[in-house]
Design brief:
Elements (H helix, E strand, L loop, with lengths): L14 H6 L10 E8 L5 E3 L7 E4 H13 L4 E7 L16 H12 L4 E6 L12 E3 L2 E3 H18 L3 E4 L6 H11 L8 E6 L6 H7 L19 H13 L3 E5 L5 H10 L4 E5 L1 H12 L5 H15 L3 E4 L2 H14 L2
Helix pairs in contact: 2-3, 3-4, 4-5, 7-8
Length: 330
């Protein structure tokens, strides 16, 4: 054969060579594990649409955090299910709120575990929206005041990182100012900078009991059709003081992860959301896909796109699989 071509397969010949030239890797340090905490007692309740994901009462929470820590995962993010909801979500910023109690408990028992507090009102309002409602709409600036109170109260409880997810305009600037004035200048903000109004959130709303009672969230979350808008949102959050930028969802938005990575110099977090988790679980339970292979491949794709960290319900499984691969050697 008299043909000239390059032999790329030389670097794929053995497992050792493939490992040597691997460009992107995964480790437990990459993962943030979401935890749902409820006010109930002695409860560990599986979310029907998310097999393997549970709501934990405070008295069952430490066992789960211990397992997470044992797997080498160093960060968790907390979502709360309060007993009481009202029109302004007052349990979100109460010193005795479920997130505040869970944070104090975890930091006391596991001081090295990073606790990230999701800062929003939708889990705590009786209408399920992320701010104050006036004439059927979420009002921006009044809602900011409550979000600042929530962030300060979470920092007072010991949260290591504040993660505002509400998508109000100016939320990073307002929260940064509030934290600084309260003396929490060293508490970083992990902003949900680019959050689309996505159909992939359905199972989360079951888990957090946070579906909107009317309408939708399209006046504050982004249109999935828009790419340039993502850059504008991320730019605003950087200018306002964000220390991390989250892109949510992840799998259908890897182009956005790459865009945000290229325009910023802070760590990018890909949120591998509940719908993405549920689809893989359902397919795996039916024997249609190899769960381990497909999960590790899609998490790797998020790192390859530019994510420094991945917020994922698969964190425990992935950490365990990665550990087993290391023990097996290659």
């Amino acid at each position: 054969m008299n043909v000239t071509f390059k032999r790329h397969r030389r670097l794929r010949k053995t497992a050792a060579i493939r490992a040597m030239v691997k460009e992107t890797t995964l480790s437990a340090n990459d993962f943030i594990y979401p935890l749902f905490v409820t006010e109930e007692t002695n409860k560990k309740t599986e979310v029907p649409s998310m097999p393997g994901v549970f709501q934990f009462s405070l008295d069952r929470l430490n066992d789960e955090v211990a397992e997470v820590q044992k797997l080498g995962i160093r960060a968790i993010i907390l979502f709360g299910l309060p007993h009481h909801k009202d029109e302004i979500g007052s349990e979100a910023f109460a010193s005795h709120g479920i997130i505040q109690k869970a944070t104090k408990q975890i930091k006391e028992a596991f001081p090295d575990m990073l606790v990230i507090a999701d800062t929003c009102l939708c889990e705590f309002t009786d209408h399920g929206h992320c701010g104050i409602i006036r004439e059927g709409d979420v009002v921006n600036d009044e809602s900011l005041n409550l979000l600042v109170k929530t962030a300060i109260s979470q920092a007072e409880a010991g949260a290591d990182i504040i993660a505002p997810s509400n998508m109000m305009d100016g939320f990073v600037a307002a929260i940064r100012q509030g934290l600084d004035e309260a003396g929490y200048v060293d508490v970083p903000i992990m902003s949900y900078a680019v959050k689309y109004a996505s159909a992939f959130y359905g199972p989360f709303r079951d888990a957090a009991n946070s579906a909107p009672a009317f309408g939708d969230r399209k006046t504050y979350q982004m249109d999935p059709a828009n790419r340039e808008e993502a850059v504008r949102e991320a730019t605003s959050d950087l200018e306002e003081g964000a220390d991390f930028l989250i892109v949510k969802p992840a799998l259908s938005y890897l182009d956005i992860v790459r865009d945000v990575k290229e325009m910023s110099d802070v760590p990018i977090v890909a949120y591998n959301v509940s719908g993405e988790y549920a689809m893989v679980k359902a397919a795996a339970q039916n024997g249609w896909v190899n769960e381990k292979a497909i999960v590790l491949e899609k998490l790797l794709s998020m790192k390859r796109a530019g994510a420094s960290l991945i917020l994922t319900y698969f964190a425990k499984d992935a950490a365990q699989w990665l550990y087993e691969e290391t023990q097996g050697g290659y």
